[in-house]
Amino acid sequence: MKKEITGYLFDKTEEFLLYLGLEQQTVDRFDTAIMCGIVVIFTFILAEIIYRSLLFVIRRIVKHRKYAFLTKMLDSHRLRKQVYIVPPVIINAMLPLIVAEGTFLFGYLERVVWLWFTIAVVMALNAVLNAVGESAFSNSKYHDRPIKGFIQISKIAVYLIAVIVIISILTNKSPLYLIGGLGAFAAVLMLVAKDSIMGFVGGFLLLENDMVRLGDWIEIPGTSINGNVFDISLTIVKVRNWDNTIATIPPYSLINNSFINWRGMSESGGRRIARGYTLKLDNIKPCSDGMLRRLKKLDRELADYINKKIEQQIHGIARNTANPEGLANGSIDTNAGLFRAYADMYLHRHPMIRKDMLIMVRTLEPNETGLPIQFYCFTADTDWSIYESIQAEIMEHFASVMPQFELYPFQSAGARDTVISGLLEGQYPIERIDGIPYKTFK
User: What is the reported pTM?
Assistant: First the structure.
């Protein structure tokens, strides 16, 4: 059957060439080459028809539905690269009809066609991977994912397979035979390219475990790296520090060493404030009736709190924490406890503090400088400048109202304090001394 088809094709080709005016001797000498040329031309015409048809269909689809992947396939002749696979497939199927099997020419042409097919497949897969990467990056759902690294892994796998296939075609050996010899090659490669392999493996683990994404704020303790990740590949991670310098890190450094990723803070929508002052111990004292009356005028909510706490004391109820009546965490027994209650109420009513996250005012272990008091809460905005503004506002407010509770933060004495102390001991008039601490004297 194959011989009949081959004979028919050659006869028709010969008739056509003689009809065009070629001599019989020329036709007999170059009939195989002419037949190959005709087949090649036919396959390219068919590939162009397929390309135009696909182009028409995809453009019609994209016109009605904006599929990112199909739109990217229309760019940079990526769709045409898919059609490059058609000619070698058709030529390989028709080759036995043109050239006798088992001849030197048949074996040579068959290898050329298989090499052509392998290269065409590599080009087509690269085009598809590039389109997948660009469409995923433009998608808001995946734009922060390290798609680039996965695309690089896929490309490397494609290249490795293609190299093995090409070598097997050129040497006429089975691919399994070549893979068996890669063991010794891998041992040498581990010695020569250890850093590159470690970077590749580290980058793969980094991407596989989703440890870093584009846009993540990372910080590496003990280094100057502190900023946003703007590029991730298999061999390098680039970070733009807050001072606009660029830091490059090999992925295995992030795998082997600890680093801080602030992504969780950004995704939660709340950024923590955990700051405080150290109160002087000799200023902490019981609240007198006069102090309570005076502090009722400071804040209406504080006045209601004091009245309810006095009422609880009259009825013999002592509830300071987890109060079922919704009172703040604090007490009216000491000025420090009352200040703690005021700070708790202030944070709960602050418009830029998250009410659905932990709000706490606590004292830490006393030390040689006094009693540390900490304000613990989360801002409703994670932007750095806004966060710092909210934090500064809160700390400044507490510093200004502490003297109202007859509390003062610890400060190391400076030169001005020494001079002022000397002037006071020398009975210099107070009204003529600049820099007297606020609320020090009544």
Answer: 0.56
